């Protein structure tokens, strides 16, 4: 049990330090220690060196001055991150922390996996582009978080109720705080770093000469974020797209920390107060 706890502790510490803008030479050793502990308990094998090597090669390509190598590097980053998100790389034996169970009356069974491959996405991108962690003044972060969370609660939750995918079901299991830490430092962190910090930033920079280029980038990435939730049906595509528009707007004005906080905050309200993950279809 000691190495299992150390795996999570090192990983969460690495994520937190990375988000706070700490040097990659500080948080990457913590990531390495997390994976070393995970290897001891069989959660990862040596095969994980493949995506790690791909990301390292991509980082080296992105440092080149010739545009063709930069394009190749971007492609390697994108495909590797997608592969990690889809759990397509061998070597990750993500442990089931919660086996399938029904958390709320009428809800579908839910299981919880500690996804080390997903966590790697956010940390790798922050190591390659440390500027993602740059934040505006704390006042702007707090203000963007406040209005973003209010917008999410005022728009997304009522729409979910209207679509019949959730119902009032307050709860807080004994392991809720562990879920919250994972939700903030693994789930929301990886998704916001990839969709907003990486995709939205890259597209906005590429379309900077276009009228409303930044807005177009936000809308397109929100649509992709919605499609990433297609497994839940068209209702979740719609809900995730709307959420993505809010997260993307918060990111534009409040930075990555604010976007992650709004994302995690909405997930927390959903988890604690409503059917989780969703009502079963009859």
UniProtKB/TrEMBL annotation:
Domain of life: Bacteria
UniProt-listed InterPro entries: Rce1/LyrA-like_dom
Keywords annotated in UniProt: Hydrolase, Membrane, Metalloprotease, Protease, Transmembrane, Transmembrane helix
Domain CAAX prenyl protease 2/Lysostaphin resistance protein A-like positions: 174-269
rRNA processing among keywords: no
Pfam families: Rce1-like
Bilayer-spanning residue ranges: 40-62, 69-92, 112-133, 145-168, 174-195, 207-227, 257-276
Molecular function GO terms recorded: metallopeptidase activity
Keyword Transmembrane helix in annotation: yes
UniProt name for this protein: CPBP family intramembrane metalloprotease
Lineage: Bacteria, Pseudomonadati, Pseudomonadota, Betaproteobacteria, Neisseriales
